[in-house]
Amino acid sequence: MKLIIMGPPGAGKGTQAAYIKKYYNIPHISTGDMFREAIKEETDLGLEAKSYIEKGALVPDSVTIGLVEERLSKSDCKDGFLLDGFPRTIPQAKALDEILHNLKIKLDAVINISVPDSVLVDRIVGRRVCKNCGAGYHIHNQKPRQDGVCDVCGGPLIQRKDDTEETVVNRLKVYSSQTKPLLEYYDKAKLVKTVNGIGDIQEIFKNIQNLLGGNE
Ligand code: AP5
Ligand code: MG
Predict the structure, then answer these.
(1) In terms of CATH, what superfamily is 2-26+79-116+169-212?
(2) Element (H, E) at 151
(3) pLDDT tens-digit profile of 106-121?
(4) Which atom of ligand 1 is nearest to 113's Cα?
C-alpha cells in the first residue's frame, strides 16, 4: 500500500497511522515527527524548522521536499509507505509526483479524515504525547492507563509546543488556504477516500480498512 493520509490538524492522522502502519506493515513517514525529532536533536534542520513550527507556519517547501525525497528513496519504502503531513502545498504535491515517477511508484490512495473545525481545537489542546516514543493520547478522549505515563514505553507524557490555542488558530488557517486545495488535486486523479473522523478510534480504522478494500 502506497498511501497518503490527510486531514486538518488534530483530525487523527497520527492516531490512525499507528493502526495502518501495523496492519499493512508499512513505514509511517510523518514530516511533523521528522521535524520534531530534528528539533530534539538540535540539528541544522531542527534549528531551521523550529521557528516555523512554533508559529504554526509551514516549513519552506525547499527544505521539506528534499527530506521526503531522501526518506522515500530508502529500501523500506519499496513495498509501501504511509505519508502523513506531506504533501501540504501544491508545489509539494507536484514534487511528490515527480519523485514517485522517478522511483516508478504509483500511489494507491489518499485517505482524507474529515472532522469539523469546532472539534479540532479541543483535540489539539488536550493532546499529550510520549516524550520518548511519540505515542499519542488525549486528556479526555484517549487517556493513558496511568496519568502522565505512556502505556507503550512508560515514558513521560508532554504537550507539543505548537499545541496552544493561539498556534492552533494559525494552523487551521494554513490548512484551509494551503493544504485543503490538495483534495481537489488528488480528486482529479480519483485517489481520495474520505472517512468520517468523528467517533470511536477503532471504528474509524475499520472504515479506513473497508475503503482500502483490506478488511476481510
Ligand atoms: P504535523 O505534525 O503534521 O501536525 P498537524 O498536521 O497539525 O497534525 P497533528 O499532528 O496536530 O494532528 P493529527 O491529525 O496527527 O491528530 P492526532 O492523531 O495526533 O505538523 C506540525 C508542524 O510541522 C506544521 O504545523 C508545520 O509547521 C510543520 N510541517 C509538517 N509537515 C510539513 C510539510 N509537509 N510542509 C511544511 N511544514 C510541515 O490526534 C489529535 C488528538 O485527538 C489526540 O489527542 C488524539 O488522542 C485525539 N483523537 C484522535 N482521534 C480521535 C477520535 N476519533 N475521537 C476523539 N479523539 C481523537
Ligand atoms: Mg500528527
Answers:
(1) P-loop containing nucleotide triphosphate hydrolases (3.40.50.300)
(2) none
(3) 999 999 999 999 999 9
(4) 14
